[in-house]
Write a structure and sequence with these properties.
Helix content is 6%, strand content 40%. It has 1 helix and 12 strands; from the N terminus they run ββββββββββββα. Bound molecules: dTDP-4-keto-6-deoxyglucose (T46).
């Protein structure tokens, strides 16, 4: 997806499977079956102090799935024209974020854990961390 033309409407919540039994539940995520990309990297945010904010950047090429595997938090998405805020609070519901979307993670509950599946390895060059530069890139659509 072209980072210049992607919008917040390309970022959607997905409900993952939940295999239930008396001893508890399992959710399984398989590349290109349960998510529309192949995950190359997994990381998770935890021990997040009350009032802390994470994110504050966009990615040039990275696709991600975010899941609140414990607790809850809000994800604010911005494509330079439109904004929306998504609450994640269930371990079998994730949010797909496509390239070219500014995101901020706020309102973490106590013990919240944010699991992220990402389509590529860590590359600092993939980050756009300056909001003014992000707006310029999105304006320059052609
Ligand atoms: C995102 C949100 C949801 C690494 O060395 N390797 C990694 O794979 C990652 C993700 C981070 N880092 C280092 C880079 C920084 O020195 O860990 C430090 C914190 O990273 P950052 O400030 O980017 O953390 P967040 O929580 O603001 O953002 C992270 C992801 O970077 C980002 O892709 O969408 O989680």
């Amino acid at each position: 997806m072209n980072l210049k033309i992607s919008t917040i409407y390309d970022c959607n919540k997905i409900t993952l499977n939940k295999i239930e039994n008396r001893a508890g539940n399992i959710t399984v995520i398989e590349n290109e079956i349960d998510i529309p990309f192949a995950a190359k990297r997994v990381y998770y945010l935890y021990d997040i102090p009350s009032g802390a904010e994470r994110g504050g950047h966009a990615h040039k090429t990275l696709y991600q799935l975010l899941i609140a595997i414990s607790g809850s938090f809000d994800v604010m998405l911005d494509d330079s024209r439109n904004k929306k805020t998504i609450t994640l609070n269930r371990p079998n519901v994730g949010l797909i974020i496509v390239p070219g979307i500014w995101r901020e993670l706020i309102n973490f509950s106590g013990s919240a854990v944010c699991l992220v599946l990402a389509s590529n390895n860590y590359l600092e060059e993939d980050y756009i961390r300056d909001f003014t530069f992000f707006l310029q890139l999105k304006k320059d659509k052609i």
